[in-house]
Amino acid sequence: METSDKSKKRIQTILLGILGFALVAFLITKSLFFGGFDIEKTTYLYIDDRKDYKQLIKDLDDSAHINGLWLFKSLSSSLGYPQKMKAGRYIIHPKDGILTVFRRLRNGSQTPVKLTFNNIRTKKELIDKIGPQFMFGTKGLSVLLNDTARYHEWGLDTNTVVCLFIPDTYEMYWNVKPDAFLKKMEKAYGRFWTESRIAKLAEIGLSKPQAMTLASIVEEECRFADEYPMVAGLYLNRLHSGQPLQADPTVKFAVNDFTLRRILLEHLKVNSPYNTYIHPGLPPGPIRIPSTKAIDGVLNYTHHDYLYMCAKDDFSGRHNFATSFAEHRMNAQKYQKALNKRNIMN
After folding, report:
1. Residue 85 backbone zone (phi > 0: left; psi -120 to 50: alpha; other: beta)
2. Could you give the angle at which helices 53-62 and 69-79 cross, rounded to 10 degrees?
3. ∠ CA 9-12-14 to the nearest 5 degrees?
């Protein structure tokens, strides 16, 4: 009887051992091939030129919440990964296994950054928008965009360098070098300026940066894209006749306040090269990064005799156009009256 009990216990112990081993094997397999990270949404690991293996392990634990850090360490040690780390931005999906992510890191299989930018007014805004999305950061991009000699071949300077940034969606790796990043922008700029567009530039008598500067003013002035050609035609009439542009958006740019709804005399006196009330011609550069629609609005401007415009007093965002100052003054008085009625002082 005792022998029988001992046999049963031995069998139970063996079975428990097998079950334990199976459970451990299951958990290891689960972590290796799926569900290796306790995350609910997609996470990214960033490895720059300064990050070492110790910091990566910390990120895997703190940010990716890895299930089975010892498995990753074992893989790394056996395949010499700590000495072969590759910089980049690496994606981790909630259902990824540790082996999948390890292979991704070891092979340098990055997920590209999809860069989209629009509605950007200043170079600083551009740097703050793009810089953090790449390894070179805001400082690296700032240095690059303030390097005057870099843009000589494109006919650009530090005021017009933003013209290189044609709004679109671009794919690049997170660890792209600043020069390579800029070359991609230069290629897009070159592709945009087709022979057809360049021919229209010649007809208008503007350079590429000048057309984009005018387009930036037009876009800031208009709420509706269908007014771009009309407003562009008005500003071109002023440029060709030698009259100052007197564009309110350039004053807002000069005083660095785009929330202004009412331009006052004190604003018009601001001594800035971007103030087109006191400085004739176009300002030194764009007051925003113009959209392709705005640029094409300038290149395909409407031919007319209008020299003046004023926002409609119904606050629809559209404009009244006039050929004479007397007519314009009447439109302006209506708008000023509407502003006063709504108690809009600035």
Report:
1. beta
2. 150
3. 110
- Cα–Cα–Cα angle for 158, 162, 167, rounded to 5 degrees: 175
Convert the pLDDT of each residue in 26-70 to its tens digit.
444 444 445 688 889 999 999 998 888 999 999 999 998 988 888
CA gap 122, 289 in Å, rounded: 8
Residue 294, both tokens: 């705005």
**Residue extents of the structural domains in the chain:** 31-107, 113-192, 195-341
Where does 31-107 sit in CATH, by number? 3.30.1490
Alpha-carbon distance of 313 to 319, in angstroms, equals 9
* H-helix segments, the chain: 2-33, 53-62, 69-79, 98-107, 123-130, 137-145, 178-192, 195-204, 208-221, 228-241, 248-255, 265-268, 292-299, 325-341
The amino acid present at 154, given as its one-letter code, is W
pTM score, two decimals?
Answer: 0.83
Q: Are 247 and 236 in contact (CB under 8 A)?
A: no
C-alpha count within 13 angstroms, C-beta hemisphere, residue 192: 23
Q: What is the tens place of the pLDDT at every residue in 112-140? A: 999 998 889 999 999 999 999 999 999 99
> Token pair of 110, please?
């990055």
